[in-house]
Amino acid sequence: MTIKSTKNKPKILVILGPTASGKSALAVKLARKYNGEVISADSRQVYKGLNIGTGKITKKEMLGIPHHLLDIVSPKETFNVVDWKKLTDKAINDILNRGKLPIICGGTGFYIQSIVDGIVLPEVAPNKELRKKLETKNLEELVTILKKMDPERIKNIDTKNKVRLVRAIEIAKTLGSVPNLKKVKPPYDVIQIGLMADDEDLKKKIKNRLVSRIKKGMIMEALNLHAVGLSYKRMRELGLEYKFLADFLEKKITKSDFMKNLETEIWRYSKRQMTWFKRDKSIKWLLKEKDVIAELNYWLT
RNA sequence: GCGCCGGUCGGAUAGUGGCUAUUCCAGGGGACUGUAAAUCCCCGGUCUUUAUGACAUCGUUGGUUCGAGUCCAACCCGGCGCA
Predict the structure, then answer these.
(1) Is A261 exposed, middle or buried (0-12, 13-18, 19+ CB in 10 A)?
(2) What is the pTM of this model?
(3) CA–C1' distance A210–B77 (Å)?
């Protein structure tokens, strides 16, 4: 056997996969087996109060395993990759210092990649006023503005994507131009395990899970969130269940449309997740729990 | 049975008789430099050498016309109204 170049690096485990594939429960099992702690890589579970709709793991289900990056910010505020990466870097260090295995578990590909590939993003905070102003411009105008500010970035940016254009202009405004994407390989030995899922099987799980979320009181949860000041506009921004819950509570759609449309939308979301994950060829896709354990036993030796 | 209205891609929809039958959704594929559950792009009749290629197609059959999804007739199906 060849000596692994990663020999002395601390190990980090990543469990990823499409929504409803059973990541959370598996992560807890693995944490118990390998003395680990879980870091959630979910762009919506960071928000307090978004519990049933995001499928956030309950205290009971955690079985005593510490979970990080859950419930850390109010849904009225916005949270992004950079915030997540900073906190996750810190959490990883803390866990390693305790002599335990960090297990990153989630379905937000961009967040996971920021750690695994060590993406260095420019230090430019969102500029609310600027965004508001740019929002009123059309595509063509935004392209013209960016072209003038940063003739390099315009070459590879998606010129049809307003959100990206606005962000690029925002960065160029403070830094003069958008720096090339930098990647600094993190000093860890990372293994990424993807939970494979059969299409039909996943569709079934999505449907069943949705029904069970309704039974658990997902609609009440949304009502409560609104009662404590979460606007329907913001709720919509949070996507999927919350988007449709807002529509339903504002009587824009019927209950049966709510169920049908949401189910479709979650399926489409899972496909988008897979499109993202497929790009990373280093992910090991496994179907069965025992295969995961076999893979990990090998990796840990 | 009579009258009216309508039958266009899986669903919904546009289409003054003129050459490539529209758009939206669903479906499939893809992108991703701080909104990522977001945002955005491509494909969607059949065949092939995948192309401003060939051949189809608008309930069915026939007709008018140089030319029909569009006009006419009959029939079939659906909705509404009257019996």
Answers:
(1) middle
(2) 0.89
(3) 39
